[in-house]
Amino acid sequence: MRKPVVLLLGGPNSGKTHYAGQLYGRLQRKPGMLKLNSNQTTPPNLSALGEVLGQLENGNSAEHTPSETWSEITLNLVDDQGQELQLNWPDYGGEQLKEVFKNREVPENWRNKLLNADGWFVLIRLSSETVYSDAIDKLKTGVGVAKSSSCQRAVNWDANAYWIETFQILKHVAGLDSISSLTTPRLAILLSCYDELTTTDQPPLEVLKAKLPLFESYLSSTWHESAISIWGLSSLGKSLGSSTNDDDFIDEGPEYHGWVCTPDGKSNDGDLTKPLAWLLKNYDD
Ligand SMILES: Nc1nc2c(ncn2[C@@H]2O[C@H](COP(=O)(O)OP(=O)(O)OP(=O)(O)O)[C@@H](O)[C@H]2O)c(=O)[nH]1
Ligand SMILES: [Mg+2]
């Protein structure tokens, strides 16, 4: 059976846990391109995802994942071509990714994933990314540049620089330096909590380009075009709090909420497995 390795990347609060919970609910109750494999028994270690789904069934959001947590659940899947896949889906506290950037150090369990990854699944919540869009203007005009010797530094990095640098560190550890690597793993960029953004029918690529132009241009110049795909992801379809008790979720079930915006930008599609199915397509062991 195929056992693809997926590298999940997403900072704190980017939506990793809610996507995993909703994915699990979809697989069980409203399957799409990926389905649970009925020829295989359901693995026993699914309680963490069951808890997330339980919270959503009560119309509430799930907890933040403690920063040191690293867990993996095994999903026995079958794709729309009938191919059987055994996927280990990880979840972890998103601070770990920030630590990689801050310390320029990649922990051992990440290193193994990076070296073996068949696909990278990256969650970026644009609404909470910091960008200094007026930085260049300020440099040109001198407006806002400190005149005294006490030069103030911004607390957060610009998200363009943050993501490029993070990718460079990870690519280096994965042995994907631009000259030596002829192929790159498939890369799915998921613009998470997409319902928070005001978008028209633009493709998600354009939405990424508008907010993080430098990062988008880095991606398009360093990743093979056919190996990259950019999606909008709204796992919940709306925002939920820890005690919202949302009636729609309670009455209809979480599996009727949440959607993806496909790379063509035209549809709000309820099949949350689609970006994952794209990532795992043509995978050969
Ligand atoms: N509006 C909206 N909010 C969402 C959506 N998905 C998740 N959220 C909210 O975003 C917050 C973070 O989601 P999580 O799934 O916990 O994020 P995470 O990446 O697991 O975060 P860490 O555990 O800190 O690494 C929670 O408050 C969720 O309720 C969505 O599709 N839309
Ligand atoms: Mg989490």
From TrEMBL:
InterPro entries membership: DO-GTPase1 (IPR045530)
Ranges for domain Double-GTPase: 7-279
Q: Name one Pfam family in it.
A: DO-GTPase1
Protein name in UniProt = Double-GTPase 1 domain-containing protein
Q: Which organism is it from?
A: Celerinatantimonas diazotrophica
